[in-house]
Amino acid sequence: MRHRQEENPQRHSFHAGAMLAASIFIASGSAHSVQAADLVIAVPNWPSGQATANILKVAIGKNFGLTADLREMGELNAFSGLESGELDIHPEVWRPNLDAAIQKYVDEKKAVVLAKRAVAAWQGLCATEDAEKAGIKSVKDLSDPEKGALLDTDGDGRGELWIGAATWTSASIERVRALSYGYARNLTLVEAEEDVGMAAVDAAVATGRPMVFACYAPHNVFELHKVTRLEEPAYDPARWKIAPGSDPLWIEHSKADVAWPPSEFHIAWSTSFGAKHADIAAFLEKVDLTPEEVTAMTYALQVERTPPADYAEKWVAENAARIQGWAKP
Predict the structure, then answer these.
(1) Rounded distance between C-alpha atoms, residue 48 and residue 102, angstroms
(2) At what angle do helices 291-298 and 47-64 cross, to 10 degrees?
(3) How far, in Å, CA of 327 to CA of 212, rounded?
(4) Which residues on adjacent β-strands are paired with residue 240?
(5) Tens digit of each residue's pLDDT (9 = 90 or more) over 103-143
(6) E runs forming strands in the chain
(7) Largest CB tally within 10 Å, which of 36, 44, 132, 179?
(8) What's the CA gap between 227 and 205, in Å, rounded?
């Protein structure tokens, strides 16, 4: 869907987490530690990525007889894991968000393969109906202190704008855009997990409070609420200059005062995995999810609170013939 260069540290107790992990390991017995999975699939921290990771796990298990571990992992760490062999498949690699990583690991190092098929997508900023009625229709309106104050939720006089999860590349690009357009001067940019951001949208709509937030499609928010994309200048490559992540001051050295470029996302896998399992690589090339299916995934996981594993089992059962077609040589 998302640019911190590192994984965002969990805000829970490390000691409690370590104790829980240890107890689970002990209770699981030695069989699990001896029987390693055949492959590892990354699990992003957004709904469609979580659903797709689980769907791939179930589908590969049923059609190729291989077991898969699912591992939560940030975007950039995932590319490193694909190169090192720690990871085999990533279910949802967004462009242009990860173009720098794609250039490094796919084009230059040849360590990662990107599926040719992609799901069409878009990214930008959205306003609730109440925000639009209050006169917030364009990114220019966000630089107006009076209109920005309408987005204030904590009483400090500054509006808040959710830009995505801290580990999403898109969140940091939204920070670049806020600095480039100028509305970072009078709005507080909030980084939080998607569940938190979407719960804030639900609450804003329910209480009639104006809200502007980072948005992307395919996504269920457009099914749930009447939200509109803010107007902004059309994408111009001459005005979209994102510095490489290797630059410690890359945000300050970037500029993007136009709309996002056309976006899309792909499945990716490690070159070494594809060489060892050419049949699964061919299968991954044929996966052809539609934007409508991706929207349904996000709705099921985020709104209906369906566990990703349960959703995947049902989806694979309902699409068995189609998946078998993907698996055919």
Answers:
(1) 20
(2) 110
(3) 43
(4) 256
(5) 999 999 999 999 999 999 999 999 999 999 999 999 999 99
(6) 39-43, 68-72, 89-95, 112-114, 119-128, 159-164, 187-191, 212-217, 227-229, 240-241, 255-256, 263-270
(7) 44
(8) 10
Q: How crowded is the C-beta side of 317, counted as CA atoms within 13 Å? A: 6
DSSP label at residue 300: I
Extract the tokens encoding 170: 């898109």
Q: Can you list the domains of the chain with their CATH numbers? A: 14-120+263-327 (3.40.190.10), 121-256 (3.40.190.100)
Q: Which residues pair with 121 in a beta bridge?
A: 263
Residue type at 193? E
| Amino acid at residue number 234 | A
* Residue 88, token pair as written in the block: 């085999």
For residue 76 the two structure tokens come to 């950039």
Tell how far CA 84 is from the center of its chain: 22
* Tokens 């044929």 found at: 286
Looking up tokens 């799901």 gives 119
Q: Sign of torsion, CA 41 45 49 50?
A: positive
pTM of this structure: 0.84
